[in-house]
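Morning F.,

Quick status update on the modeling queue. The single chain you submitted on Monday has been processed. Sequence for confirmation:
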Amino acid sequence: MVAKEIGADDREALREANAAFYRAVEELNLAAMEKLWLHESWVRCIHPGWDLLVGWDLVRQSWDQIFSGTRWMRVTPTSIDIRVLGEVGMVGCAENITATSDGDVGVAVAQATNLFLRTGTQWRLIHHHSSPAPVRVTQPFHHGSPEP
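Structure tokens below.
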């Protein structure tokens, strides 16, 4: 089997597909999300704190639920790592999330992996897994009793 040579155009198209995913999230845009996902019974999604969702119908319902319960969301992906592996693309990143719902503002960082499948000339999401990143708080430690 001969692997197709992976070029900068493939990576750039995958980078744009991933950026379009986060734009759809920020815009709370279900119609845009529908265009990004492959509509198959085997696609998967794991939101932070959620159970595994399998199948486009459940994945779509989850985004509808998230969008309808959120007033505003900002997601800034950082530490982006893009890999093109033939017809599959993988994007790993940190998601820096700020969102408002029910008057509360939440701030979180999650680690995400997004898998895409090339369908013709487009990359379609087939898997999104986002897990809370560990929180690391440092403070001085003094042996014995804590200092005020």
